[in-house]
Design goal:
Elements lengths: L4 E3 L3 H39 L4 E2 L7 H4 L3 E8 L5 E8 L2 E12 L5 E10 L17 E8 L21 E2 L4 H7 L4 E8 L19 H26 E3 L11
Parallel strand pairs: 2-3, 4-8, 6-9
Antiparallel strand pairs: 1-10, 3-5, 3-7, 4-5, 5-6, 7-9
Length: about 250
């Protein structure tokens, strides 16, 4: 005759379950939250970018005045403090994003313009040649605020104490502190049809990674479900199981 099962969890499985289940659930909900944040950012981006173009002023503006708006500005490129953002991939090829300061017309303020992607060229020991048009330019594009939190392996120091041309990330505060002129707190993604000295410009949507976050969330929730199933299976024991039989006299 089979004995009914009863719930008798062991101390070690209970401890593991109590630690891992909240962790798995937290990671799953966190991934869903990241997906929702990207969706909301894309909605804000589309609303502002599809509206009327905003003229960049000659004074330093607040980031929120320009963020995600399509902007227009006139000025001249200056390459002395141009930087290349490393490890940017286009169609499976590694390269750089070219960030060039634009000195606004009749102003000392510079506006950083992401002119697009270029191939890494022959190798990292030799930077690619970058053509930059001279004279007055009119640029249009969407103003973005680079992320402030990112993973970095360190900052290689420039040889000879000169200007560091290759950066791992676009760090606005670091850039503003390193240059001798005022800078607008945004980077403009140059429009693909703008003729002001651009390169490959296929800008990613902000919600491009939503499905990835949702997939990760599903995996964490499935791990939580599997953990609960294993814990219940191990904790349900048949009544009398593990009790030694008494010898008959």
């Amino acid at each position: 005759m089979k004995h009914p099962r009863r719930f008798r969890p062991g101390p070690i499985p209970s401890l593991v379950f109590a630690v891992l289940l909240p962790l798995f659930l937290y990671l799953g909900y966190w991934q869903l939250q990241r997906a929702e944040e990207k969706r909301q950012l894309q909605v804000e981006y589309d609303t502002r970018a599809n509206g009327p173009a905003v003229q960049v002023e000659r004074r330093v503006q607040r980031a929120e005045e320009l963020r995600f708006y399509r902007v227009v500005a006139r000025g001249r490129y200056e390459t002395d403090h141009q930087i290349l953002i490393d490890n940017r991939v286009h169609q499976g090829r590694v390269g750089y994003h070219v960030i060039t300061p634009l000195r606004l017309e009749n102003s000392e303020v510079r506006l950083l313009v992401n002119r697009g992607w270029i191939s890494i060229g022959e190798g990292r020991d030799r930077l690619p040649a970058i053509d930059t048009p001279g004279g007055l330019q009119q640029i249009t594009g969407v103003a973005t605020v680079p992320a402030e939190k990112y993973f970095t392996l360190g900052r290689p120091e420039p040889s000879g104490g000169g200007w560091q041309r290759v950066w791992q990330n676009m760090e606005m505060m670091r850039y503003a502190a390193a240059v001798p002129f005022p800078v607008q707190p945004v980077v403009v993604l140059l429009d693909p049809d703008n003729a002001a000295g651009g390169f490959t410009r296929e800008w990613s949507r902000l919600d491009a990674g939503i499905s990835v976050h949702q997939g990760y969330a599903f995996q964490w929730f499935m791990l939580a479900a599997a953990l609960a199933s294993i814990y219940l299976f191990m904790s349900l024991r048949r009544r009398g199981a593990g009790t030694p039989k008494q010898e008959q006299p």
